[in-house]
Amino acid sequence: MRKGAGIRAMLSAMEVIFEVRESEEGGYTARAPGHSIVAEAETWEALRENVREAAALHFKDAPARPTLIRLHL
Fold first, then answer.
1. What single-letter DSSP state applies at residue 72?
2. Which of 2, 6, 53 is nearest to 30 (CA)?
3. Any bridge partners for residue 72, and if so which?
4. What CATH number is associated with residue 58?
5. What are phi and psi of 45, to 5 degrees?
6. Structural domain of 27
7. Model confidence over 31-50: pLDDT tens digits?
8. Which of 6, 22, 33, 53 is spaced 20 to 30 Å from 66 by Cα?
9. How many domains is the chain built from?
10. CA–CA distance, 29 with 20 (Å, rounded to integer)
11. What single string gives the DSSP state of each residue in 3-70?
12. pLDDT-based confidence at 13, cuts 50/70/90?
């Protein structure tokens, strides 16, 4: 294996997991432990979209972006 190839393979399968909680006021709040990413929305569908957008902005200048985003309620 070439030097650095394992790192590239690991980065290409990057996964970000969001912990989702229902807000007392209604809607949802999602936080990604280990990253400073937070998203909120009134509906589950809107939350999924907001999480994708927040993750894209967070990793905008990073050498690798997540290929998988999971939401855990």
1. E
2. 53
3. 19
4. 3.30.160
5. -65, -45
6. 5-72
7. 999 999 999 999 999 999 99
8. 22
9. 1
10. 6
11. TTHHHHHHHHT-EEEEEEEE-TTSSEEEEETTTTEEEEESSHHHHHHHHHHHHHHHTTTSSS--SEEE
12. low
CB-CB contact of 65 with 52 (8 Å): no
Tokens of 11: 């980065």
Chain-centroid distance, C-alpha 36:
10
User: Tokens 């190839």, residue?
Assistant: 5
For residue 49, give every residue at least 6 positions away whose Cβ sits within 8 Å of its Cβ, in sequence order, or none.
41
pLDDT at residue number 11: 44
What length does the chain have? 73
Summarize the confidence of residues 47-63 as an average pLDDT: 96
| Token duo for residue 29 | 């709040």
